[in-house]
């Protein structure tokens, strides 16, 4: 009887990240179906809050409460530093500005922005950890950091045109840009790669040494849905075929690598 109770106690924490993950998917489905306005803005807030909850809950459940708190603080601090410097100087993303629709700010950075970083940073690191598992031990950390930064920046390639379309931020000089995306400059991609490298180094130092207690399904569901689900929404409802194509293109090598790993295991 005591063994059964212990098993249930273990399952409950393990299930904690799944609740906001499933709610996020259901909420994200509503976004492209709504007209621009307060209802769609509320959905955007809900998606980010749920996604950040998935990251913190999974980090805490899988690697301990200290790791969960560390992931939250490291991501929020890195986001505020990079975004506030970016707003003031244009480095490293290029010159941009936020609208008032995103609500309260800290150093000019809307509170929603660090939470959006948190929503995607932890899943990006988890995916990179999986993709680089076969690397030589001496090369695993730099490989994890590089791949995680690339995944993190790739997510923004899909998201940023949607947020510009929604009026949440605008770029002073959106050209030159990726083919098919004329509202976001290439400097933004370079900035995300730099910021991602810094953040993923911090997350790797925080979490790489801990033995996972649960699987990564919930955060990887969030990452997959926000990228591929976002690409579908861009193509079918939001009139953003360029970012939709880039989302699929960037996902192909990741899916291929995961398929090869699954076949070898």
Structural topology:
Elements lengths: L1 H14 L2 H13 L7 H26 L1 H25 L6 E3 L6 E2 L2 E2 L1 H20 L5 H30 L2 E3 L14 H22 L9 H20 L4 H24 L1
Produce a short descriptive summary:
It comes from Geodermatophilus pulveris. The protein is mainly α.
Number of strands: 4
What distance lies between the first and last C-alpha atoms, to the nearest angstrom? 35 Å
Q: Which range does the strand content fall in?
A: under 5%
Our count of domains comes out at 1
Structural class: mainly alpha
Verbal overview:
This protein is mainly alpha-helical. It has one domain. It is 73% helix and 4% strand. It has 9 helices and 4 strands; from the N terminus they run H-H-H-H-E-E-E-H-H-E-H-H-H. Strand 2 (105-106) and strand 3 (109-110) form a beta hairpin. Helix 3 packs across helix 5 and helix 6 packs parallel to helix 8. The longest helix is centred in the middle third of the chain and has 30 residues, at 137-166. The chain is globular and about 45 Å long. The chain crosses the membrane at residues 12-31, 43-61, 68-93, 105-125, 145-169, 189-211, 218-237, 243-260. This is Putative membrane protein.
